Amino acid sequence: MKILVTVKRVIDYNVKVRVKADQSDVDLANVKMAMNPFCEIAVEAAVRLKEAGLASEIVAVSVGPSACQEQVRTALALGADRGIQVDTAEQPEPLIVAKLLAAVVAAEKPDLVILGKQAIDGDNNQTGQMLAALLDWPQATFASAIAVEEGRLKVTREIDGGLQTLSLALPAIVTTDLRLNEPRYASLPNIMKAKKKPLEVKSPAELGVALKAHTRLLKVEAPAERQGGIKVASVGELVEKLKREAKVI
Amino acid sequence: MNTLVIAEHDNRSLKGSTLNTLGAAAQLGGEVHLLVAGLDCGGAVAEAAALPGVSKVLVADADAYQHQLAESLSRLVADLGKNYTHILAPAGSAGKNLMPRVAALLDVAQLSDIVGVVSPSTFRRPIYAGNAIATVQSLDPVVVATVRVSAFDPQPAQGGDATIQTLDVVHETGTVRFVGEELAVSDRPDLGSARIVVSGGRGLGSGENFALIESLADKLGAAVGASRAAVDAGFVANDRQVGQTGKIVAPELYVAVGISGAIQHLAGMKDSKVIVAINKDEEAPIFQVADYGLVADLFEAVPELERAL
């Protein structure tokens, strides 16, 4: 089984986001960037399938400016065999990313594509599902367990109210949820080895995808701040306030 | 202008999230049609026909739609969607699974988790875990969006008389098979739509101690939630999780017990009408958003609160 795994370069999840003064976007100048946490889980899932002898090759793909090669290298250090960067001047919207990935899939012919369920910047939660639609492949989103059984993929999904299990024929799309696994850290020797692994750069033109805009970002604002209230001294005072002042019980 | 809303239902009845999504549809203007796709979904259809905000109910009742898998449902919705300016679904796990697939089939963008309607083509939505709010304009002929349920008031459930149209086209699920489902069974209200939510965090210390939270919730007729820390520590199942990576809730009263108030948790509950925080650490960030904060040992304060109610 050949696996394609996608990685996105996003703001580090520990960094506090600030909106630009002109409200054009969030301010990413001089901000620490990292691999999207859900993509780390996707890479880990791919590597575990390979370690279990179920996958033969892992190709890591990122779409974005050349800086995202850093995240492809991270994926290579974690166990991917080779990398592809689809070079775009800016980060395209999910439909375009899905089209670029569909073109990469057409060339690479993987049996399985694993993506993070969403990126922590746009919080869109779309690319995997869109890629599945474009390829007409089955999808298992929000995966919390993956198993290979008799040539099919058995995936447990986190849904509202519980868990759902699906069986998918390959090729298929899986998107990862938080509890699928705990990603490892890259070791120093593996980081050094990753520098020698092949990383190919492709342009949208080579892949035959036009970068059409489907949405326009008009404004980005800081959310309304919630004002803190008061401290109550006792349980009795709390109950009194909830009954008489807030009138919610 | 006309809108197709995808009903969230369990075949027997509609989920409350459908009413909030109709609230978003009402702000767009124009006719609203509701799609109920499932198997033996007559109960849900009867409820749908009584919705005053809906002029027509489209019914797709077939084996292929029994588990509402995205592979078959997306084709059905994309086929129907060509006749609409807007297609909306609640932003629960079902809508998030389905709608991007619909959008890609229609070659249009999808807007996730909208929290405000600025105009029929322009919407507000949270990004960066709710730390910023984007205003986004769609440039496509059809707007496909998921609706953050807590951001829109529910439409009334009774008083309408919609026409019912049965759809005969069946799209098969193809190469995916439903294996099974484990749904938590509970007599408590649904976390996403409860009037009161009581949530516990890492401060509870163990899964057994969560009984304190459940007991208080039962006294209040509330749903039980949890912070991600409590879920990660294995105290409760993940479907209890309130936060950016879990459920987004906005009840009338939210009681946070032993929860420090990480940004990712606040993103899931800060739109609650009244927030109560009980925590022994007076520096906990949860107090910055709480209307009423009680600095106390939860193991004493929670039973005392339950007795005082």
From TrEMBL, chain B:
Domain of life: Bacteria
PROSITE patterns listed in its UniProt record: ETF_ALPHA (PS00696)
InterPro entries reported for this sequence: DHS-like_NAD/FAD-binding_dom (IPR029035), ETF_a/b_N (IPR014730), ETF_a/FixB (IPR001308), ETF_alpha_N (IPR033947), ETF_asu_C (IPR014731), ETF_asu_C_CS (IPR018206), Rossmann-like_a/b/a_fold (IPR014729)
UniProt KW Electron transport keyword: yes
Positions of the Electron transfer flavoprotein alpha/beta-subunit N-terminal domain: 3-182
One protein family per Pfam: ETF
UniProt keyword annotations, A-Z: Electron transport, FAD, Flavoprotein, Transport
UniProt family annotation: Belongs to the ETF alpha-subunit/FixB family.
PANTHER family noted in UniProt: ELECTRON TRANSFER FLAVOPROTEIN ALPHA, ELECTRON TRANSFER FLAVOPROTEIN SUBUNIT ALPHA, MITOCHONDRIAL
Name the UniProt record assigns to this protein: Electron transfer flavoprotein subunit alpha/FixB family protein
Source species of the chain: Azotobacter bryophylli
